[in-house]
Amino acid sequence: MLKINPERLLNDLKRLRGFGATGPGVVRLALSPVDMESRRWLVERMTDAGLDAVIDGVGTVFGRSRKSGPALVIGSHTDTQPTGGWLDGAMGVIYGIEIARALAENNDTSHLAVDVASWIDEEGTFAGLLGSRSFVGDSVEESIRSARNREGLLLQDALQVAGLAGRPRVRLEKGRHMGYLEPHIEQGGRLEAAGKSIGVVTTIVGLRELRLRFTGQRNHAGTTPMSIRRDAGAALVAFIARMNEAFGQLADADTVWTVGRIDLDPGSLSVVPGQADMYLQFRDANAARLRAMETRLAELVQEFNARGPVAVVLTDADEPMEPVTMDATLQAHIASAAEAVAPGQWIRMPSGAAHDAQLIAAHLPACMLFVPSIGGVSHDFIEDTAEEHIVLGCQVAATAAAAILRTGWEKRS
């Protein structure tokens, strides 16, 4: 069996952690100076692994094997959330580098081609999934022109400052790639709760992101009787209670919804809010259930508007994402590798988080592998995974990658 080098794998992960380290976590926002420093380091590591590596015109780091193919792309992202963990995305990229090295060092697999990617801005500092969208040929020109980060910096200006403006962008090469593998931490607690070490991802859930704006009337908080108030904030809170009840009647065990942000205008203790915005996200692997939740939400808005005295307007906050099923053949390769390396320690499971794999799946057979997150925590500084699970996951991914690539060579022959 193909063997990875655990010490080399962990050393690279810990070195990458050093770029933007903040306590136990990492702050490495897309295209920030420390992110660019880490990308230049990734180019060095990919080059040392025998890949032709570049940072492309949107910031993706791509290491192309010098072997002719068929090739498997392995990767994820290395940008983080504002309060990020050290493994979210980063682990999958370092897995790719280690698998490329391990394949090259084994006489039986040295002819197999792995390309490695660190897609830019998966986390949406400027425009979510930017690197993978660019790679598959989706138009990103409007995002480059108009997307801004929280500080108001335009994406096109950030690319200019980073020295990337005008560089060629890496694109999917027709006929070269036979599939895409994205290893990742689970970012949830299902594996840990089940006492399992590997998750074979079946589906990446779809999601909706919406804004509900409640418009009432600003007024004095001390002199306005409750009976005549048009309190947008109070209406928002009441709406959430009704929505929770309605969604609960539609949901199954894996359905989730979150009010992640509330803005009150003017946000003063002495002023009845005249406007209140809530930003809602809901996710499910079942497309029909997502549509049912959209329909029920629209009905609730109509009911609130009919009752008054506060008006509600529902708009999209971002483009909807539909559920995406991972390729069955590639799933089978991961399952077979998991059973060979860690018999009985794996399960099939959906991904509740969005990933670059869901975009790439429309253009290449795609698959994902999960390892456990301690306490089910991610998008936080305390995110962590046991080293034994990191190493085990890489060994499973390497075993699966070799099997997938051998299948490609058999077909070519």
Descriptive overview:
- The chain is of the alpha+beta class and 413 residues long.
- It folds into 2 domains: 6-204 and 323-412, Aminopeptidase (3-Layer(aba) Sandwich), CATH 3.40.630; 206-316, Alpha-Beta Plaits.
- 37% of the residues lie in helices and 24% in strands.
- It contains 12 helices and 17 strands.
- Strands 3, 4, 5, 6, 7, 8, 15, 16 and 17 form a 9-stranded mixed beta sheet that branches.
- β5, α3 and β6 form a beta-alpha-beta unit.
- α1 runs antiparallel to α3, α3 (90-105) packs across α12 (387-412) and α10 crosses α12.
- The two termini are 23 Å apart.
Supply database-style keywords:
alpha+beta, Aminopeptidase, nine-stranded mixed sheet, single chain, 413 residues, four-stranded antiparallel sheet, Alpha-Beta Plaits
Taken in chain order, the helices and strands follow as: HEEHEEEHEHHHEHEEEHEEEHEEHEHEH
Mean pLDDT, rounded to whole units? 96
CATH superfamily of the largest domain: Zn peptidases
Strand content: 15-25%
Radius of gyration based on Cα positions: 23 Å
Uncertain regions spanning at least 5 consecutive residues: none
Number of domains: 2
N→C terminal distance:
23 Å
Q: List how many beta strands DSSP finds.
A: 17
CATH topology of the largest domain: Aminopeptidase
Give the second-level CATH assignment, the architecture of the largest domain: 3-Layer(aba) Sandwich
Q: How is the biggest beta sheet arranged?
A: 9 strands, mixed
CATH class division of the largest domain: Alpha Beta
Structural class: alpha+beta
Helix count, per DSSP? 12
Helix content: 25-40%
Which term fits the overall shape? globular
